[in-house]
Amino acid sequence: xxxxxxxxxxxxxxxxxxxxxxxxxxxxxxxxxxxxxxxxxxxxxxxxxxxxxxxxxxxxxxxxxxxxxxxxxxxxxxxxxxxxxxxxxxxxxxxxxxxxxxxxxxxxxxxxxxxxxxxxxxxxxxxx
Length: 128
Known about the structure:
mainly alpha; 4 helices; 0% strand
């Protein structure tokens, strides 16, 4: 495949928006953990403990989502440099890794959404 500078550059806005979304998730979960932790200290309610455990898992996944998205972004930039210096074979290899990291990040995002749904189920079940 013949890579041009514009192909890896197409990933820049997508990865940037993805990272913004991941950061927003992280901040929302951090605020929720602080709130639930205070409630748990007051009530010792088991559903809160379960939610906090799920949130801990979600934070770990989000950390890896962000790391793989950053790696993808960095590798896309390296690809552009390699295209610029006309090292096409290396540019193709690095771009392939960039795409793999982006796909891993998206799969982790899917898993995190599933955990989020599970946490909401715990909340709804505790209301019954």
